Amino acid sequence: MHKLRNLLGPLRVFDAVHRAGGVSRAAELLHVTPGAVSLQVKQLESAIGIELFRKSGREIELTDAGRQLATRLADLFDRIEMLIEDVTVAGNPRRLRMKVLPSFAIKWLVPRLTGFYALHSDIDIEIATVVRAEDLHLGNSDFVVRHGDGQWNDVHVDHLFDEAFVPVCSPAVAKTIHSPADLLEAKLLHSMMRPEGWPTWFSAAGLGTAQAAHNMTLANAALCLQAAADGLGVAMAQMAYVSDELASGKLVRPVDLIARTDLGYYLACDPGKAQVEPFRSFRKWIRTVC
């Protein structure tokens, strides 16, 4: 055991070299000099009596024994980190972690959190965003928010709101729009995350596959809504995302038509956590603000 304790440092450095793909890159990650990294690796080789790296031109590569040790060591360190994470969460049961899309976080969730903290100031919330909807799996998160039909057998779901598309723009831009057909001459703002938004609305408006003359594409709905408020064009919005802007007059609906689908937005969590605190309190609160 004493020998193992003395090797933990060199083993961690060896793992860093393996993951980083070289001594110099490992040194940068560890914030030490390349010489210090090389010294630790040599100490490890000396202690276990096995050559772990060999020279390959100007680079180094793992020996067969080194590759075997590196692979198994990486798995062990990953498991240790997961164990520490689990213990940390267990030691702080008043923390919950969420994973959502950026527009949902910016336009819906974060503006409502003041109300949650007023009721539950002792619960910490950690919110992470992902670029793709495909990445909304629970993993290490307690909650994710998914768009779909809510039929996921592996999670417990709470319905948040139905999908409802509406065009929105600044009051100045709205003065030029009097009918759905007028939108074909306006500059339309498209979200890369939801490219089907405008086609869905045009179909509901009876315009089929009509194409607008002027278009701008932005990364997500939040950017589209900001651009619309700034007078750059007309954005297709989820009704739930623009209630505050519509109430304040910052954005207006130039056409009253709402395009609804059979889909919606759902809060999803592990079924085993649904009735456990603090997750139950968060589920109860979020259903009251939908």
What's the topology here?
Layout: H1 2-20, H2 23-30, H3 34-48, E1 53-56, E2 59-62, H4 64-91, E3 95-100, H5 102-119, E4 124-129, E5 143-148, E6 156-168, H6 171-174, E7 187-191, H7 197-204, E8 214-218, H8 221-229, E9 234-238, H9 243-248, E10 259-269, H10 279-288
Parallel strand pairs: 3-4, 3-5, 7-8, 7-9
Antiparallel strand pairs: 1-2, 5-10, 6-9, 6-10
Helix pairs in contact: 1-2, 1-3, 1-4, 2-3
Structural write-up:
The structure is a single chain. The mean pLDDT is 90. This protein is of the alpha/beta class and 290 residues long. The relative contact order is 0.13. The chain starts with a helix and ends with a helix. The chain folds into two domains: 2-91, Arc Repressor Mutant, subunit A; 95-290, 3-Layer(aba) Sandwich (D-Maltodextrin-Binding Protein, domain 2), CATH 3.40.190.290. Helix 2 packs across helix 3 (34-48). Strands 4-3-5-10-6-9-7-8 form an eight-stranded mixed sheet. It has helices at residues 2-20, 23-30, 34-48, 64-91, 102-119, 171-174, 197-204, 221-229, 243-248, 279-288, and strands spanning 53-56, 59-62, 95-100, 124-129, 143-148, 156-168, 187-191, 214-218, 234-238, 259-269. The chain contains ten helices and ten strands.
